[in-house]
Amino acid sequence: MNVLVLGAGQLARMMALASKPLNVNVRAYDVGSRTVVDPLNLAQSYGDLAEGIAFADAITAEFEHIAHDVLAQCEASGKLHPSSQAIKTGGDRRLEKGVLEQCGVANAQHKIITTEQDFADAISELGLPLILKSALAGYDGKGQWRIKDASQAADIWKDIEAFFAGANEPAAQAVVAEQMVPFDREVSLVGARDAKGNTQVYPLVENHHTDGVLTVTVALAQNEALTAQAKAMFDKVADALNYVGVLAIEFFQVGEQLLVNEIAPRVHNSGHWTQQGADTCQFENHIRATTGMPLGSGELVRPTAMINILGEDEVPSEVLSVPSVHLHWYGKGKRAGRKMGHINLSADTNKALVERLYQVAQLLPSAAFEDIQQYAAELAKKY
Ligand code: ATP
Ligand code: MG
Predict the structure, then answer these.
(1) 262 CA to middle of ligand 2, Å?
(2) Residues of the chain scoring pLDDT < 70
């Protein structure tokens, strides 16, 4: 069985690594060079998109910002999973909000704005503070503005206009203005759905961000009720999109209530812990779903945490001397802030895991792993 992944980054790489034992061969379409490559050896190329499509039994994507003509060409082959509509929904906050509303899934109150007048209306209708997010091409907190006071509106609008002007398709752009949610924490649910509608979800996990970028995910044996609430929303969204593959949903938790922040139609950074902590990892389940194999269990086998390695191409080797620690490098060139790899660590109990997280954090250079120790210390107080 052969799979073509649209996108040739670390997610395609980890899908390829998880696929080999299943006798599935993965190739990746590099959207920059428009060539098909080996995701484990980017120098090895296999021709153009048409050749990639011919090679594949199934086609999928590792990110949602893929040119629509590429999606259309893949969909025409009948091999693309999830559908182009699902992928586009993840890449356009207007479509995303539309699906959430259509499913009746709780999310932040919002308004779509394209003019300065819309912006003024959003401020009066939704109140302040607001967070403004570009409809297209936003990721890792880019294309976002925060407004606390109406006096900032004119300057922020200038910034937004400049952002629109620099975008690929300025006319297609818009901004979603959202009420700022006073959340207690950020959590996410990753799950897989197959073509028959069967699902396997992983437990709800807690996500810690540093400067708007995910730095730590913690998967603990915990709160069944909250996972059930998230699972109900996952089912609604996945059914509405007739989804096939792994889908991630990010939530804000406010008290015992979850609000959807955003959805990602793909394997997700907050699911990397599943490589060591779940019965079947997200990469394998995505490949199983998209190639028509039965899904594997998403059950937590042991509490596990993931630490992102950002902008560093090495970590102290002592990290590996801590029990149940695993390193996953992506083989990418070093660049400030770039996702270079991650560390997974596991333990038998929640308490042992948060202690181990603190232990690993102490071994990591604080310049590159700024607030991980502090986060681990806070978790240790709760468990
Ligand atoms: P990523 O790709 O890292 O998930 P993103 O660019 O897709 O980021 P969001 O997830 O929408 O953007 O927002 C980034 C972060 O900003 C969130 O994780 C959250 O911390 C904060 N944030 C976003 N929307 C809101 C909101 N409505 N209220 C409060 N905080 C928010
Ligand atoms: Mg996000």
Answers:
(1) 6
(2) 138-142
Class of domain 2-80: alpha beta
By C-alpha distance, which of 191, 199, 189 is closest to 226? 189
Atom of ligand 1 nearest to the CA of 250: 10
Nearest ligand 1 atom to alpha carbon 181 = 28
User: By C-alpha distance, which of 341, 229, 219 is closest to 274?
Assistant: 219
Which 8-state DSSP code applies to residue 21? G
Q: Is pTM beyond 0.85 here?
A: yes
Model pLDDT, residue 246: 99
Q: Give the other-Cβ count within 10 Å of 153's Cβ.
A: 17
- Residue of 261, 272, 308 to mutate, ligand 1, most atoms within 8 A of C-beta: 261
- pLDDT value for 138: 59
Ligand 1 pocket (Cβ < 6 Å) reads 108, 131, 133, 138-141, 178, 180-181, 186, 209, 212-214, 250, 261-262
Domain 109-179: CATH architecture, name and number where available: 2-Layer Sandwich (3.30)
Whole-angstrom distance, CA of residue 165 vs CA of residue 159 = 10
**Cα 335 to ligand 1 centre (Å):** 23
Class of domain 185-381 (CATH, top level): alpha beta
Q: What angle do CA 185, 187, 189 make, to 5 degrees?
A: 170
Reported as a single tens digit per residue, the pLDDT across 263-313 is: 999 999 999 999 999 999 999 999 999 999 999 999 999 999 999 999 999
Q: For the chain, which residues make up each domain, given as ranges?
A: 2-80, 109-179, 185-381
- Contacts of residues 328-334 at CB distance under 8 Å and 24 or more positions apart, as own/partner, are 328/14, 328/272, 328/275, 330/9, 330/10, 330/13, 331/13, 331/40, 332/9, 332/10
Q: Look at ligand 1, atom 1, and give the residue with the nearest C-alpha.
A: 140
Please give the Cα distance from 209 to 241 (Å, whole number): 28
